[in-house]
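Lecture notes, unit on protein representations.

Consider one protein chain, 279 amino acids long.
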Amino acid sequence: MEQLLSRPEIQSAVVPFVIALVVYLGLRKITASAWLWALLVAFLASAALINGLIVNPLTGTRKIILLVTASFVAAALLHWILRSDNLQRRFTTIISQVALLWVFWAVVGRMDSASMVLFLAGSISLVLVSEYLFVRIIDKPAQLHGAGFSLLLGVGLSATAAASALLGQLALALAAASGGALLGWVLSGSVSRQQTRQSIAVLPYFMAPALLGIAAVMFARLPWYALIPLTSIPFAVSLVPQKSSSRFVNALLASLPGLVIALGVAYYVWQTGSSGSGY
C-alpha cells in the first residue's frame, strides 16, 4: 500500500478525486458548502502524500499549501460574518494580494525597480481579473466547477511541463478534487442542497491557480505569457449556454472550452520549453 501511495498519479489524481467525491456526496444534504469541504479534505490528503504536512522550514511551496488551505476554510465559514457581497469582494481582493506578497516578496525584493513594478502589476492584474471572471459564474455550478477544474488542470500540466513537478502535482491534485466534486454534483441531482452562491466561495478557485502558476513562473520555467490564456478559461466557459435539463450535459459542455485551452497551453509549454526562468 505504501508503495502504491508513493506513485505520483495516485497522489495527485486518484486520491483527491475519490476523496472529494465521497466527501461531497456525504455532505451534500447537510451544507451548501459541501464542495468546499470536499476540496479541502482532498487537497490536505494529497498535500500530505506529496509534500508532507510539515511547516518548517517555511518555503514558498509550503506557504502556498497553507494559503490554499486557509482559503477553503475562509470560503466555507466567513460568509456568516461577512454578510454583504461587497464586504466579501473586498476581503477576497485584499487577502489575495496579501497572499501574493507573502509568498513572493523574498524574490520580488531582490528585483530591480522596473522588474518589481512589472511583476506586481502583472500578478495583481491576473488575480483581479481571475476573481472577477469567477464571481460572474458563481451561481452556475457546472460552469464554476468546469472552469475551476480546467484552470487547475492547465496550471498543473503546464507547471509539470515547465519542470516543476511539485507545483504541478499540487495543482493537478486540486483539479482532480474539483473533478470529483463536479461529478458528485452531477450524480446528486436535486437531492443535494443548493450550492452556496456567496462571492467569497470563489476564493480558492482563483487564488490557488494564481499562486501555483506564478510560482511556476518564478521558480521554474513556465513562460509568464502562458498564464494569460489560462486566466481566460472562466470567461470562455461562461460563453457556453446552460440550457439542458441534464446536469451531465451542462457539466460536459461547461468543461470543454476550458479543457481545450488548458491542454493547448500545456502542449505549447511542453513543446517549446525554456532555458531559464519564465520571468
